[in-house]
Design brief:
4-stranded antiparallel β-sheet; about 25% strand; about 500 residues; 4-stranded mixed β-sheet; about 30% helix; alpha+beta
């Protein structure tokens, strides 16, 4: 794993402020014209933000879909998190704050949650958002025919009902610590989906032409070209936020090649992107007047995903050897320009559950070779590759094409592992093709991907053995890890939960 310190570049605006709906108007006392979608400008009254303008954003891949309970990629999430509304927002302390929900409380035993939702919220088609829509959304995830990756979020729910038009009642089978984060999905409009079997939600027109209650309305999607959203003038939070959102049009441009995207940023065709790490210094030096860099530690990581269902990777000593034998520091210095760290475990340092006492496995080629030999491999002197039962230790790596970062990581992995006697075949292909044809069906040895984590340290969907249809693409199966992940969900005391996750991190680093 490599934890990136991500850098976003914005021309003239900070996207985070725009997308998260903070005021993006001029500073107090400034007189700044605001562009309108038609290209003209309207004067802005002194010190007050005004509606208008267009921001062009980067998507490096086409989204899988725009359905908040089906989408499994960040490319779809960029869109559906703005089109749909969800129950809660979360503050910098990871505490829930009102959004669609105006209040919530738990019973004394923690097994029943009662959530009151705001009245007067409208979907983009003008229909009311009610408790029935919230119940329908969560029950769809609970359905036995549900095909998305989020079923683990609702396993603790025994029953969910709507006692009245604006009340949601959730009865749990047992205490479930991350319940408020795990039910916080974009709320589907029941009327649009209730006639479609859950297993066919992906075929419902609203999956690709979404209708939500969020700050932006879906306008158009041209595959391989762009996605356009327009400001929702009737957004229910607008009055509370002084008229926000202020940006009229958001347009995501699909540009797979990193060099092409950076040229678009430099020319002004794009207003925001996360550039390749190797190019950040150049952009900072040569485009000071146009670019505003935003540097932050990411709640997530980039990682090599070992498929433990493959015979050569079933032995944990082989996975340990690959970990010791991968020169991750060279990836950081040679590919990521020093803008990343090697994490000590699966929970990043930005999380309250991070264990600072843990240290990452060092780069140690001798240790890697020792582990391979303990696993029964013998070096073939003529090829320089370890063999077992006459079969060379050859693995296939899948990554997405178009990224110089992934190309650089793959090159260093191939070189590092060749030096410990492992032959790596590198296959760089289209992201969606990789997901559909290799990762989801488990037809790979090793893949590289990035993963953005949730606000809660619960990683059940990533590493619990039951989550092969979720995000456990590597078919990881460790009964001790399963028990810890289950215990972490049931424990409500933060100190005790932190101790559970400290043990979890140590065990997962030992069994990579």
């Amino acid at each position: 794993m490599i934890q990136a310190r991500k850098v976003s570049m914005g021309i003239g605006v900070l996207l985070t402020a725009a997308v998260m709906l903070s005021a993006c108007g001029p500073k107090q006392g400034a007189q700044t014209p605001t562009p309108t979608p038609g290209g003209t400008t309207t004067p802005v009254s002194q010190g007050k933000p005004a509606v208008g303008g267009e921001i062009n954003l980067l998507l490096t891949k086409d989204p899988d879909n725009f359905n908040p309970i089906l989408s499994s990629t960040s490319y779809g999430a960029y869109i559906h998190t703005l089109v749909y509304a969800h129950l809660f927002e979360f503050n910098e302390k990871f505490e829930p704050t009102p959004y669609v929900a105006e209040s919530w409380k738990a019973s004394d035993d923690g097994l029943t949650w009662t959530i009151k939702i705001k009245q007067g919220i409208k979907f983009h088609d003008g229909n009311d958002l009610t408790a029935d829509d919230v119940v329908f959304t969560l029950k769809s995830i609970m359905d036995k025919d549900y095909t998305g990756p989020r079923s683990s979020s609702v396993t603790s729910i025994k029953e969910i009902t709507a006692p009245d038009k604006y009340t949601v009642k959730i009865d749990l089978k047992e205490q479930f610590a991350p319940i408020l984060t795990d039910i916080n999905y974009g709320i589907l409009e029941k009327k649009l989906f209730e006639g479609t079997p859950v297993k066919d939600f992906d075929k419902n027109p609203a999956t690709m032409k979404p209708v939500g209650a969020g700050p932006y309305k879906f306008v158009e999607y041209k595959r391989g070209q762009y996605i356009t959203l327009e400001r929702n003038d009737n957004w229910f939070m607008s009055k509370e936020l002084g008229g926000a959102p202020f940006i009229q049009t958001l347009r995501w441009k699909v540009i797979p090649e990193s060099a092409t995207a950076e040229a678009a940023l430099e020319s002004g065709e794009l207003d925001w992107m996360t550039p390749e790490a190797k190019d950040v210094a150049n952009l900072e030096a040569n485009f000071k007047a146009k670019l505003t860099p935003v540097d932050y530690e990411r709640n997530g990581w980039g990682y090599m995903n070992f498929n433990v269902s493959r015979p050569q990777l079933a032995d944990k000593r082989v996975r340990q050897a690959l970990t010791y034998g991968l020169d991750r520091q060279s990836i950081i210095t040679g590919v990521l320009d020093g803008r990343a760290v090697i994490p000590a475990g699966p929970i990043p340092s930005v999380s309250w559950a991070f264990d600072p006492s843990l240290k990452p496995a060092p780069y140690d080629k001798a240790k890697a070779k020792q582990l391979l030999e303990e696993a029964g491999y013998k070096m073939n002197a003529s090829t320089g590759i370890y063999e077992k039962d006459g079969q060379p230790l050859k693995l296939t790596f899948y990554g997405t094409t178009g990224s110089s970062t992934i190309e650089g990581i793959a090159a260093i992995a191939k070189k590092s592992w060749k030096e410990i006697g492992v032959d790596l075949d590198v296959q760089l292909i289209d992201f969606n093709a990789m997901m559909d044809n290799f990762l989801k069906p488990g037809k790979f040895d090793i893949s590289f991907a990035g993963f953005s984590l949730g606000l809660d340290p619960d990683q059940y969907t990533l590493f619990h053995s039951s989550q092969v249809t979720g995000f456990n693409r590597g078919r990881y199966n460790n009964p001790e890890i399963d028990k810890l992940l289950e215990a972490g969900r049931k424990e409500s005391d933060p100190a005790k939960r932190k101790a559970i996750y400290a043990d979890y991190q140590k065990r997962l680093m030992d069994d990579p």
